[in-house]
Amino acid sequence: MAVLLKKIDKSLSMLYGLKSKRLKASTLVETLVATVLIVTIFSIASLALNTIFKSVIEKRSDQTVHTRLYELKYLYVHDKVGLKHQEPFNNWVISISKKTTDYQSIIRIEAIEKTTQKVIFKQFIDAQIE
To answer: Are 105 and 98 a contacting pair, CB within 8 Å?
Structure first.
């Protein structure tokens, strides 16, 4: 029976062009080194994704301030808020001021972050000249 199995195995390997190869077993040290490399690569990838997501979240916080500045512009145009308006918004201080030149008035809505002193502003020309 064993001779028959060897002949079948030999004929199958010749039919498919396969040769039986023996693979060396890996040692414990090789396995540990491979594990450390995999863990290191995944931790570096995780840190990179973390910084990307953090920057996206920070950009979104700026977006909320921009949205509030546009809201205040709308409210000013429709006489719901006036000049010298100042309000806290999250970690920002928002204020409205007016600068007058010879023939036009410029309204400036400005937001200043409390911790980093970052300034975001919107300016527009006031149509109501006194």
So the answer is: yes
- 47 pLDDT more than 90: yes
Q: What is the DSSP letter of 124?
A: E
| Residue recorded with tokens 């500045």 | 69
Q: What pTM does this model have?
A: 0.54
pLDDT at 129: 44
Distance CA 110, CA 91 (A): 14
Instruction: Spell out the SS3 assignment of 69-115.
Output: HHHHHHHHHCCCCCCCCEEEECCEEEEEEEEECCCCEEEEEEEEECC
72: closest CA among 35, 116, 110? 110
Instruction: Report the candidate in 110, 98, 109 with the shortest Cα–Cα distance to residue 73.
Output: 109
117: left (phi over 0), alpha (psi -120 to 50) or beta: left
For residue 22, what is the DSSP state? P
